[in-house]
Amino acid sequence: MILSMFLSAIAVMGFSIIFNVPRKELIFCGLTGIAGWIVLTLITSVMYDGIVAATFLASITVTTFSRILSSVRKMPSTIYMIPGIIPLVPGLRIYFTMFYAVSGELNEAVQTGITAITIAGVIAVGLLIVLSLPRKWFSFGKGRV
Amino acid sequence: MQEDNAIKMAVLAGEIMLASGAETARVEDTMTRLMESSGYKDAESFCTTTGIFASGFTPDGEQVSMIRRVKAREGNFEKIARVNDLSRCIVEGKKDVVAAIKELEEIRSILPYPFIVRLLGSCIASLCFAYMFGGTLIDAFASFAAAMLMQFPVIFLERRKVVAVLCTITGGVFAALFSLVFVNFGFGHNVEYVVIGAIMPLLPGVALTNAIRDVLDGNMLAGSARTLEALLTAVAIAAGVGTVFGLWMSVFGGLSQ
């Protein structure tokens, strides 16, 4: 658990390097990643089959974190949000959808595929909800971000 | 003369932001603010994922407009952050137009992290993801190696300006191929975790997040274009991996012994 938290931070920071995030902000990207991952793993370990709900809440957490950081650090929120969202992407399920489709097990393919699309959808909805909240709810400093 | 430069400054700022992966609303907002801060009336800007339009009336009442086609596409958040800072300075009146254009040119030529750092960054991300998703330690290292080897053909094609989709398909093909070879030679246990780790760097993270933001802001044109871009990339990865898996299964009768 601790190890996977640590790894999620490193993974997110690795991604931030691909996106050329300024050096000083890398650590904050890592923190955003950890926040999302903690929520995801906590809820999935408590709730059986709770991956959709967990991803939804994790997506909300990541976006909220990014918006707070963006106002504190005076940086566009995208910088934290895009790397932070990556660990939530349903890679495993998309993979299995493709795997089942290729091996001709269409029932499983459809089943996993729909779960994958649902997860992608709730990530989007989570982002959407937090992004549509007014800016001043997140601002602790002054000035436009 | 000053007024003519203001629209150039705004378009240049917009171009840098759009090419670096900023969302449409931010680009439009920045451009309009920059033009208004130089005394433009009815300053308007419109931006899609591939181009920028700006127009307005200079303080002398002359109408000016500019169009810029944006082709370059890279994720470079440092540039977005720098332009964002600069635009705040300009709006607050701390910098004049000439100095701003000079600094924008400087920002445009900011180099990304060195190639080797980015390569290692993406490979380490692959390693961590393979392990986080439930692979073993050996899977994680196999994923690291597959991700690294997969990058070379992709970069080879990218340097030759091959269409982006083809680069992504190639990435998927090689990621799957190397993963299968590794696992079958005993380097890695579960092919699924190795592949997933290896394809993570290809995922359309910027396109997807920006698609959501654009649609939310009511920029339907840019939003749907970016959604399409994200979907296309995802399908391309799946197609690449799927083709190799399908071929491998029909030749060897299974994914791993």
Query: What is the chain-wise order of helices and strands of chain A?
Result: HHHHHH
Let me know the number of strands of chain B. 3
Anisotropy-based shape of chain B: elongated
Low-confidence stretches of chain A: none
Largest sheet of chain A: none
Mean pLDDT of chain B: 88
- List the quaternary state of the chains: heterodimer
How much helical structure, as a percent, in the residues of chain A?
over 70%
Q: In DSSP terms, counting alpha (H) and pi (I) runs of 4 or more, how many helices of chain A?
A: 6
What is the compact description of this entry?
By secondary structure, chain A is an all-alpha fold. Chain A is built from 6 helices and no strands.
Which descriptors apply to this entry?
heterodimer; A: 145 residues; mainly alpha; 6 helices; globular; B: mainly alpha; three-stranded antiparallel β-sheet
Could you give the topology of this structure?
The complex is a heterodimer of chains A (145) and B (257).
Chain A: H1 2-18, H2 26-46, H3 51-73, H4 78-85, H5 91-102, H6 106-131
Helix pairs in contact in A: 1-2, 1-4, 2-3, 2-4, 3-4, 3-6, 5-6
Chain B: H1 2-19, H2 24-37, E1 41-47, E2 51-57, E3 63-69, H3 77-91, H4 97-108, H5 115-132, H6 137-159, H7 164-184, H8 191-199, H9 205-216, H10 220-252
Antiparallel strand pairs in B: 1-2, 2-3
Helix pairs in contact in B: 1-2, 1-3, 1-4, 2-3, 3-4, 5-6, 5-8, 6-7, 6-8, 7-8, 7-10, 9-10
